[in-house]
């Protein structure tokens, strides 16, 4: 097939045509087990009937009306987010990058309004990932994503992830915000320590800075709780969400308190499509299913089963030295001889009818549907084992 898209993506050698639950079929009719979840987006699998119904229903009523108006779907979803988190207010946008952009702009303006123009520095983690806008890619701390776009926004300091002393040394009177992923996603499914997040909260409180948790990947049930911060007992000032928030329909959001939200007065920030009625209608229906106690319990149960099975497979094949993560957000860390070859394993898996991801060159990542069944899990593991055995054989 002729490709008419820009070459910034290296597309897989198959074209998906339709999908249902955790199964995908390509244009040739071949079936795949999807344990990638559209990079942690399809939290309820593909084409969940309740989400299809919500979209169909809203599409007959109102598609877009502009942000001069609010809508019932936007208010309904915001209310659910507020009632189930620390937050009082929600800002809607379309993606995780936009959510983090809004969070960082809000923090900068809040610092300037309260303390003056010197209160502008952002402290972020090395090897983090916060999006692809110029601001978020600069905050991300991975030069490979930002160096080609210099000069970059200034006033950003990077510290090692989970290094409490480095964090304490970096945060001071000039800091307006500290931004952290509770589990670093793109860099290898690395959970933060409780001590690290507690230190971040303490330093922000001491210096009048805002604590931002980027929960674009960890949020909406992936870890077995609605948001990962609940595992740690550390509450942020701003939280960014996207990916699974819309169950596959594009939507992003930031959650914050009344006091901080007041910084965004009329005209200070905006989004043409933010709060789109269709996105919010789908997100609202997805929220009800994701936040149900039985769904979150299922995530915990299936997460334990899948992590145990992956550890056994790692031991059997020698390919994985560690399985880490929370719930159904899982990283399989490659053993020494196989470091740097995660991409080869995902390609081998695809040939065996299995969709998985990388999280850096050394980690194979799984972020399946929160409703993952035993049958689909077992079939996926069977295909992964076959892929690993074939790949090992071909490389000896």
Automatic annotation (TrEMBL):
It is found in: Cytoplasm. Its cofactor is pyridoxal 5'-phosphate. One of its GO terms (biological process) is L-arginine biosynthetic process. InterPro entries: Ac/SucOrn_transaminase_bac, AcOrn/SuccOrn_fam, Aminotrans_3, Aminotrans_3_PPA_site, Class-III_PLP-dep_AT, PyrdxlP-dep_Trfase, PyrdxlP-dep_Trfase_major, PyrdxlP-dep_Trfase_small. Its EC number is 2.6.1.11. The modification N6-(pyridoxal phosphate)lysine is found at residue 243. Its main location: cytoplasm. This is Acetylornithine aminotransferase. The gene is argD.
């Amino acid at each position: 097939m002729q490709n008419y898209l820009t070459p910034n993506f290296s597309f897989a050698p198959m074209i998906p045509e339709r999908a249902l639950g955790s199964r995908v079929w390509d244009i040739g009719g071949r079936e795949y087990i999807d344990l990638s979840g559209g990079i942690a987006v399809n939290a309820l699998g593909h084409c969940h009937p309740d989400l299809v119904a919500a979209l169909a229903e809203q599409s007959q009523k109102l598609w877009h009306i502009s942000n001069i108006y609010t809508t019932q779907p936007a208010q309904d979803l915001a209310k659910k987010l507020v009632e189930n988190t620390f937050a009082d207010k929600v800002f809607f946008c379309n993606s995780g990058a936009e959510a983090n952009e809004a969070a960082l702009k809000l923090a900068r303006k809040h610092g300037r309004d309260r303390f003056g123009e010197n209160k502008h520095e952002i402290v972020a983690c090395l090897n983090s990932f916060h999006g692809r806008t110029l601001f978020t890619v600069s905050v991300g701390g991975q030069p490979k994503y930002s160096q080609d776009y210099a000069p970059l926004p200034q006033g950003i300091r990077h510290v090692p992830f989970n290094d409490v002393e480095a964090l304490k040394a970096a945060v001071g009177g000039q800091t307006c915000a500290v931004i952290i992923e509770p589990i670093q996603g793109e860099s290898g499914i690395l959970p933060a320590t409780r001590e690290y997040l507690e230190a971040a909260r303490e330093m922000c409180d001491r210096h009048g800075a805002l604590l931002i948790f980027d929960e674009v990947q960890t949020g909406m049930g992936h870890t077995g709780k609605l948001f990962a911060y609940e595992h740690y007992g550390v509450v942020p000032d701003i939280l960014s969400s996207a990916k699974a928030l819309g169950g596959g329909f594009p939507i992003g959001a930031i959650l914050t308190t009344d006091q901080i939200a007041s910084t965004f007065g009329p005209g200070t920030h905006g989004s043409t499509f933010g709060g789109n009625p269709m996105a919010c209608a789908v997100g609202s229906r997805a929220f009800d299913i994701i936040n149900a106690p039985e769904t979150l319990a299922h995530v915990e149960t299936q997460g334990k089963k899948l992590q145990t099975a992956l550890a056994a497979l790692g031991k059997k094949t020698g390919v994985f030295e560690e399985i880490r993560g929370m719930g159904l957000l899982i990283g399989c860390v490659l053993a020494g001889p196989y470091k740097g070859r995660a991409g080869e394993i995902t390609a081998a898996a695809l040939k065996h009818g299995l969709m998985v991801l990388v999280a850096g060159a050394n980690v194979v990542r799984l972020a399946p549907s929160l409703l993952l069944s035993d049958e689909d899990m077992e079939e996926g593991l069977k295909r992964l084992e076959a892929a690993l055995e074939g790949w090992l054989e071909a490389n000896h």
